[in-house]
Amino acid sequence: MTCLFGPSKPPAEITWYINGEEAPASYVSPTPPSGDREVISESRLSFALEPPLMSLSVRCVASLSQVHATSSLELIVGEGTSGADFQRILHVPPGQEGPVITGGLPRYYVGDIVDVNCSSARSLDLPQLEWHINDEMARPEFLTPYPPTHYPDGLSSAKLGLQFRVLPEHLRGDEMRLKCTATHSSIITRTSAETLLLGDNHRSSGFHTSDRSGTAVTQVLSSTLNWLLILMYLTKRTVS
Q1: Which of 58, 105, 122, 235 shows the smallest number of beta carbons within 10 Å?
Q2: Any idea where the Ig-like domain is (predicted)?
Protein backbone atom coordinates (compact mmCIF):
# COMPACT_ATOMS: atom_id res chain seq x y z
CA MET A 1 0.00 0.00 0.00
CA THR A 2 1.12 3.56 -0.67
CA CYS A 3 -0.09 6.68 1.15
CA LEU A 4 0.35 10.09 -0.49
CA PHE A 5 -0.20 13.48 1.10
CA GLY A 6 0.27 16.93 -0.34
CA PRO A 7 1.84 18.85 -1.82
CA SER A 8 2.73 20.70 1.37
CA LYS A 9 5.52 22.62 3.06
CA PRO A 10 6.69 21.41 5.50
CA PRO A 11 6.25 17.75 4.54
CA ALA A 12 3.63 15.74 6.41
CA GLU A 13 4.44 13.00 8.89
CA ILE A 14 2.76 9.75 7.84
CA THR A 15 1.95 6.94 10.29
CA TRP A 16 0.50 3.52 9.45
CA TYR A 17 -1.81 1.47 11.72
CA ILE A 18 -2.68 -2.21 11.31
CA ASN A 19 -5.75 -3.42 13.24
CA GLY A 20 -5.52 -0.35 15.47
CA GLU A 21 -1.83 -0.72 16.33
CA GLU A 22 1.05 1.29 14.88
CA ALA A 23 2.83 -0.65 12.16
CA PRO A 24 6.38 -1.85 12.93
CA ALA A 25 9.10 0.31 11.43
CA SER A 26 10.30 -2.65 9.37
CA TYR A 27 6.98 -2.61 7.46
CA VAL A 28 7.25 1.06 6.47
CA SER A 29 9.35 2.60 3.70
CA PRO A 30 9.06 6.41 3.75
CA THR A 31 10.27 8.50 0.85
CA PRO A 32 12.42 11.36 2.20
CA PRO A 33 11.47 14.82 0.86
CA SER A 34 13.94 16.75 -1.24
CA GLY A 35 14.41 20.45 -1.91
CA ASP A 36 12.98 23.50 -0.15
CA ARG A 37 9.59 23.64 -1.84
CA GLU A 38 6.16 22.05 -1.52
CA VAL A 39 6.46 18.29 -1.86
CA ILE A 40 4.18 15.26 -1.86
CA SER A 41 4.82 13.12 1.20
CA GLU A 42 4.86 9.41 0.42
CA SER A 43 5.05 6.31 2.59
CA ARG A 44 4.79 2.66 1.58
CA LEU A 45 3.51 -0.20 3.74
CA SER A 46 4.62 -3.72 2.85
CA PHE A 47 4.27 -6.92 4.87
CA ALA A 48 3.31 -10.60 4.44
CA LEU A 49 -0.27 -11.56 5.24
CA GLU A 50 -0.67 -14.41 7.68
CA PRO A 51 -3.32 -17.10 6.88
CA PRO A 52 -5.04 -16.83 10.33
CA LEU A 53 -5.98 -13.22 9.58
CA MET A 54 -9.53 -13.27 8.16
CA SER A 55 -9.96 -9.51 8.32
CA LEU A 56 -7.52 -6.66 8.27
CA SER A 57 -7.94 -2.96 9.00
CA VAL A 58 -5.27 -0.63 7.66
CA ARG A 59 -5.15 3.08 8.43
CA CYS A 60 -2.90 5.81 7.09
CA VAL A 61 -2.65 8.99 9.19
CA ALA A 62 -0.96 12.09 7.78
CA SER A 63 -0.18 14.97 10.16
CA LEU A 64 0.86 18.43 9.02
CA SER A 65 2.10 21.17 11.32
CA GLN A 66 0.86 24.65 10.38
CA VAL A 67 2.86 27.46 12.01
CA HIS A 68 0.78 30.49 12.98
CA ALA A 69 3.18 32.46 15.23
CA THR A 70 6.94 32.56 15.67
CA SER A 71 8.97 34.76 18.01
CA SER A 72 12.65 34.74 18.88
CA LEU A 73 15.25 36.37 21.09
CA GLU A 74 18.91 36.49 20.07
CA LEU A 75 21.87 37.19 22.34
CA ILE A 76 25.12 38.43 20.78
CA VAL A 77 27.95 37.86 23.25
CA GLY A 78 31.55 39.00 22.82
CA GLU A 79 34.79 37.03 23.00
CA GLY A 80 36.64 37.54 26.26
CA THR A 81 39.24 39.95 24.90
CA SER A 82 36.88 42.13 22.88
CA GLY A 83 35.35 43.98 25.80
CA ALA A 84 31.95 44.06 24.09
CA ASP A 85 28.76 43.61 26.10
CA PHE A 86 26.04 41.31 24.86
CA GLN A 87 23.17 42.59 22.74
CA ARG A 88 19.56 41.43 22.75
CA ILE A 89 17.64 41.30 19.46
CA LEU A 90 13.92 40.49 19.83
CA HIS A 91 11.70 39.44 16.92
CA VAL A 92 8.00 39.14 17.82
CA PRO A 93 4.70 39.56 15.94
CA PRO A 94 2.77 42.74 16.83
CA GLY A 95 0.88 42.48 20.09
CA GLN A 96 2.70 39.37 21.32
CA GLU A 97 5.44 38.66 23.83
CA GLY A 98 8.64 36.86 22.91
CA PRO A 99 10.73 34.32 24.81
CA VAL A 100 13.10 35.28 27.65
CA ILE A 101 16.72 34.11 27.95
CA THR A 102 18.31 33.92 31.39
CA GLY A 103 21.80 33.04 32.57
CA GLY A 104 23.88 34.51 29.74
CA LEU A 105 27.23 36.24 30.39
CA PRO A 106 28.45 39.35 28.53
CA ARG A 107 31.71 37.64 27.51
CA TYR A 108 32.99 34.11 26.98
CA TYR A 109 36.46 32.64 26.55
CA VAL A 110 37.23 29.46 24.64
CA GLY A 111 36.71 26.62 27.11
CA ASP A 112 34.00 28.43 29.12
CA ILE A 113 30.67 26.71 29.75
CA VAL A 114 27.57 28.37 28.33
CA ASP A 115 24.60 27.62 30.59
CA VAL A 116 21.43 29.50 29.64
CA ASN A 117 17.67 28.90 29.74
CA CYS A 118 14.90 30.02 27.42
CA SER A 119 11.34 30.47 28.70
CA SER A 120 8.36 31.19 26.49
CA ALA A 121 5.76 33.85 27.22
CA ARG A 122 2.67 32.60 29.01
CA SER A 123 0.00 31.32 26.60
CA LEU A 124 -2.89 28.87 26.30
CA ASP A 125 -0.95 26.56 23.98
CA LEU A 126 2.65 25.62 24.70
CA PRO A 127 5.05 26.58 21.90
CA GLN A 128 7.92 24.52 20.52
CA LEU A 129 11.25 25.96 21.72
CA GLU A 130 14.47 25.70 19.70
CA TRP A 131 18.02 26.86 20.30
CA HIS A 132 20.41 28.00 17.56
CA ILE A 133 24.14 28.71 17.90
CA ASN A 134 25.35 31.08 15.18
CA ASP A 135 22.22 30.30 13.10
CA GLU A 136 22.82 26.53 13.34
CA MET A 137 20.47 24.22 15.22
CA ALA A 138 21.90 23.29 18.61
CA ARG A 139 22.91 19.65 18.99
CA PRO A 140 20.45 17.52 21.01
CA GLU A 141 23.06 16.73 23.67
CA PHE A 142 23.36 20.47 24.39
CA LEU A 143 19.66 20.75 25.30
CA THR A 144 17.96 20.31 28.67
CA PRO A 145 14.15 20.08 28.50
CA TYR A 146 12.13 21.13 31.55
CA PRO A 147 8.50 20.41 32.49
CA PRO A 148 6.10 23.20 31.54
CA THR A 149 5.01 25.72 34.14
CA HIS A 150 1.24 26.05 34.65
CA TYR A 151 -0.32 29.16 36.17
CA PRO A 152 -3.61 29.64 38.09
CA ASP A 153 -5.12 31.64 35.21
CA GLY A 154 -4.88 28.60 32.91
CA LEU A 155 -1.85 29.82 30.97
CA SER A 156 1.40 27.89 30.66
CA SER A 157 4.99 28.48 29.60
CA ALA A 158 7.69 26.20 28.20
CA LYS A 159 11.37 26.11 29.16
CA LEU A 160 14.43 24.72 27.38
CA GLY A 161 18.02 24.86 28.63
CA LEU A 162 21.20 25.12 26.56
CA GLN A 163 24.60 24.06 27.91
CA PHE A 164 27.85 23.53 26.01
CA ARG A 165 31.57 24.29 26.13
CA VAL A 166 32.76 27.18 23.97
CA LEU A 167 35.04 26.07 21.12
CA PRO A 168 37.06 28.30 18.77
CA GLU A 169 34.53 27.74 15.96
CA HIS A 170 31.76 29.13 18.13
CA LEU A 171 33.40 32.56 18.20
CA ARG A 172 32.99 34.09 14.76
CA GLY A 173 34.43 37.55 14.40
CA ASP A 174 34.97 37.73 18.17
CA GLU A 175 31.28 37.15 18.87
CA MET A 176 28.80 34.31 19.33
CA ARG A 177 25.06 34.36 18.61
CA LEU A 178 22.65 32.42 20.83
CA LYS A 179 19.08 32.41 19.57
CA CYS A 180 15.94 30.93 21.11
CA THR A 181 12.83 30.58 18.95
CA ALA A 182 9.30 29.90 20.19
CA THR A 183 6.91 28.50 17.56
CA HIS A 184 3.15 28.12 17.96
CA SER A 185 1.61 25.68 15.50
CA SER A 186 -1.53 23.66 14.87
CA ILE A 187 -1.58 20.02 13.82
CA ILE A 188 -3.82 19.08 10.91
CA THR A 189 -4.54 15.35 10.71
CA ARG A 190 -6.11 13.43 7.83
CA THR A 191 -6.98 9.73 8.02
CA SER A 192 -7.59 7.19 5.27
CA ALA A 193 -8.89 3.75 6.29
CA GLU A 194 -9.36 0.48 4.42
CA THR A 195 -10.92 -2.75 5.71
CA LEU A 196 -10.00 -6.01 4.00
CA LEU A 197 -11.98 -9.24 4.18
CA LEU A 198 -9.67 -12.15 3.46
CA GLY A 199 -10.27 -15.72 2.44
CA ASP A 200 -12.38 -17.06 -0.44
CA ASN A 201 -14.47 -13.86 -0.53
CA HIS A 202 -11.46 -11.56 -0.64
CA ARG A 203 -12.52 -8.00 -1.20
CA SER A 204 -11.81 -4.52 0.10
CA SER A 205 -13.97 -1.63 1.17
CA GLY A 206 -13.62 1.91 -0.14
CA PHE A 207 -11.47 4.25 1.90
CA HIS A 208 -12.73 7.28 3.74
CA THR A 209 -11.10 10.34 5.23
CA SER A 210 -11.82 12.25 8.38
CA ASP A 211 -10.51 15.41 10.01
CA ARG A 212 -9.12 15.19 13.53
CA SER A 213 -8.69 18.86 14.30
CA GLY A 214 -10.08 21.71 16.36
CA THR A 215 -12.23 24.60 15.18
CA ALA A 216 -9.27 26.82 14.33
CA VAL A 217 -7.68 24.11 12.24
CA THR A 218 -10.96 23.35 10.46
CA GLN A 219 -11.09 26.95 9.31
CA VAL A 220 -7.60 26.62 7.87
CA LEU A 221 -8.64 23.46 6.06
CA SER A 222 -11.66 25.08 4.46
CA SER A 223 -9.70 28.05 3.15
CA THR A 224 -6.23 26.81 2.30
CA LEU A 225 -6.17 23.03 2.17
CA ASN A 226 -8.28 22.30 -0.88
CA TRP A 227 -5.13 20.75 -2.32
CA LEU A 228 -4.98 18.24 0.52
CA LEU A 229 -5.19 14.69 -0.76
CA ILE A 230 -4.64 11.22 0.60
CA LEU A 231 -4.63 8.28 -1.78
CA MET A 232 -4.39 4.62 -0.98
CA TYR A 233 -3.52 1.96 -3.48
CA LEU A 234 -4.04 -1.70 -2.66
CA THR A 235 -2.30 -4.46 -4.59
CA LYS A 236 -4.68 -7.38 -4.30
CA ARG A 237 -3.41 -10.85 -3.74
CA THR A 238 -5.25 -14.12 -3.25
CA VAL A 239 -4.89 -15.75 0.14
CA SER A 240 -5.57 -19.45 0.17
Answers
A1: 235
A2: 1-76
Closest among 21, 37, 23, 30 to 3, alpha carbons compared: 30
CATH of the domain at 42: 2.60.40
- What span, in angstroms and rounded, lies between the C-alpha atoms of 198 and 48? 13
Q: Are 237 and 49 in contact (CB under 8 A)?
A: yes
Domain that holds residue 119: 69-185
Distance CA(229)–CA(226), nearest Å, equals 8
pLDDT tens digit sequence for 70-109: 778 787 776 554 444 557 777 776 767 888 888 878 788 8
Residue 111 lies in a domain: yes
Residue 77: alpha-carbon gap to chain centroid: 29
How far apart are alpha carbons 65 and 58 in whole angstroms?
23
Nearest-CA neighbor of 70 among 127, 148, 13?
A: 127
